[in-house]
């Protein structure tokens, strides 16, 4: 079992930056993939960025070049650095842990609101 707690959301003007943090209740060293998803009003949840246990990352096309995901295994924490924010980035951002052992399971945080004003 993994509990995830996000922080770092808030209100920012377009062009600004925020850094989201996700602290896990246990070691993330062996977690196959950690990721950030978001759900904007009236839209489905979408993958923003993910990072594998080996450090390989992938990003949604809409955030490439602006967002950076990283993980600190010693601190059981995953970060999402968001630069050049746009109003379209406004959403609730959720941390995700995809675990495959002892069984496949997705863990989710409670979400943190990011609002970008124009």
Description:
The protein has 118 residues and is mainly β. The chain is built from no helices and 11 strands. Strands 2, 4, 5, 6, 9, 10 and 11 form a 7-stranded mixed beta sheet that branches. β9 (91-99) and β10 form a beta hairpin.
Largest sheet: 7 strands, mixed
What oligomeric state do these chains adopt?
A: single chain
Unreliable spans: none
Mean pLDDT: 95
Cα end-to-end separation: 40 Å
- State the secondary-structure class: mainly beta
Rg of Cα set: 14 Å
Helix fraction?
A: under 10%
Name the helix and strand elements from N-terminus to C-terminus, one letter apiece. Answer: EEEEEEEEEEE
> Would you report the number of β strands?
11
Shape category: globular
Give the amount of beta strand, in percent.
over 45%
How many helix segments? Answer: 0
Name the features:
118 residues; seven-stranded mixed sheet; 11 strands
Q: What's a quick, concise take on this entry?
A:
0% of the residues lie in helices and 53% in strands.
Please give the structural blueprint:
Blueprint: E1 4-7, E2 10-13, E3 18-24, E4 33-39, E5 46-52, E6 57-59, E7 67-72, E8 77-82, E9 91-99, E10 105-108, E11 112-117
Parallel strand pairs: 2-11
Antiparallel strand pairs: 1-3, 3-8, 4-5, 4-9, 5-6, 7-8, 9-10, 9-11
């Amino acid at each position: 079992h993994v509990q995830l707690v996000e922080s770092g959301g808030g209100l920012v003007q377009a062009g600004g930056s925020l850094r989201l943090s996700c602290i896990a209740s246990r070691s993330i060293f062996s977690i196959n993939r950690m990721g950030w998803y978001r759900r904007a009003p009236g839209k489905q949840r979408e993958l923003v960025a993910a990072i594998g246990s080996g450090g390989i990352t992938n990003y949604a096309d809409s955030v490439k070049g602006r967002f950076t995901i990283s993980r600190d295994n010693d601190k059981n924490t995953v970060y999402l650095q968001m630069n050049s924010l746009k109003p379209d980035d406004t959403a609730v951002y959720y941390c995700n842990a995809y675990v495959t052992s002892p069984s496949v399971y997705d863990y989710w945080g409670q979400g943190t609101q990011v609002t970008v004003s124009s």
